[in-house]
Amino acid sequence: MANLFPQEIIRRKRDGAALSAAEIEFLVRGITDGSLADAQVGAFAMAVFFRGMSMDERVALTRAMMASGRVLDWRGAGLPGPALDKHSTGGVGDKVSLMLAPLVAACGGAVPMISGRGLGHTGGTLDKLQAIPGYDPVPTPDTFRRVVRSAGCAIIGQTDDLAPADRRLYAIRDISATVESIPLITASILSKKLAAGLDALVMDVKFGSGAFCAAYEEATELARSIVGVANGAGLRTAALLTDMNRVLGASAGNAVEVREAIDYLTGAYRDARLGKVTRALSAELLVLGGLAADDRAAQAAIDKALASGAATERFARMVAEMGGPSDLVEHPERHLPRAPVVRPVPAGRDGYVTSVDARAYGVIVMGLGGGRSRPDDRIDPAVGLTDIRGPGEPLTRERPLAIVHARSEEDADRAAAALRAATIIGAVPAMTPVVRERIAA
User: Fold this and answer.
1) Which of 82, 230, 237, 235 is nearest to 153 (CA)?
2) 2 pLDDT above the threshold of 60
3) What fold characterizes domain 6-66?
């Protein structure tokens, strides 16, 4: 290692050479301990951005970033089943994790889910959970293990000692215009998942106007990269490509999405598209984890977990053991914050929702205070949109496009105007499936 120089390795990648595992490990060690200057890290990211990486290089980078910090080991932890997880590339109204974790737990799995916060127009699972009073997103390692063992699932935030190389590399990518690199995105996602000590992973890679990857082809490339690298690194993984050209479910915000997740688990209200995505990802995990022989058996197990109330009970236990109220499921209105201004946005005329700009819907929630444009922005958990009408749904003068939950009348006015501008009303559109494709090793 003594004869390795960062500038020479960066030059080789800049010129299109494939780096060895030893060279990549050297760079990652320098990113982690600070011996590589920010300029060198940025230069490496830019070289990868333009030159790409082979599958072997991606696996080596992911493994090195995983090993840059603590790697969880669930062996001997007394888990109720295999350690399983799901990761989404993010979308507007994506509350799937809140239902999937307890569903998979009720079917015999253990879900130690490490989630992130939202940035930009896509919401974060952690922000939704922090709308629940008392919920602790950064428990001690012992508490995390205890809750996963007891409830079968626990959703927490990333700790500082998991894949620290990714934290520094991502921060520099963010300010050096190199975020949109498939190899670097792959390593960023999977280094944290491998460090979580999982037995299997399912990826929800979204495409469309409300997704990080708007183009279907780009989302497909990312899904293939993640599946290839994850399996190459020894983690059983499959990916589903799902449509984010509309809000997922009938709500977007934080507290309002928690309420919709509770309603789905209890059966009070179940949006069809949200259900299809949640069930498809849950079933994939059950099969990958060896808890179901095939999709048909997995769907039957999911039906049983919902009908019996077992999934609801797992969610309630997780919330209570993570510091939240013990009666959240029974009385969500007592605990979830509510906005002072709640106003329907009339369609103005009869017709059908022909199409929506899902990204714009996410930006509307941000404008209300429900999202952040910078990592240190504070979030208002009460604001958002509910009763959102999606493409194909009929509208009348009395039936609103959505209901705005705002902090002030002025905020509600702005949101209503933006909502109308982001929605096209006309003829019934051709409907497309929400789960477009499955990609596996």
Assistant:
1) 82
2) no
3) 1.20.970
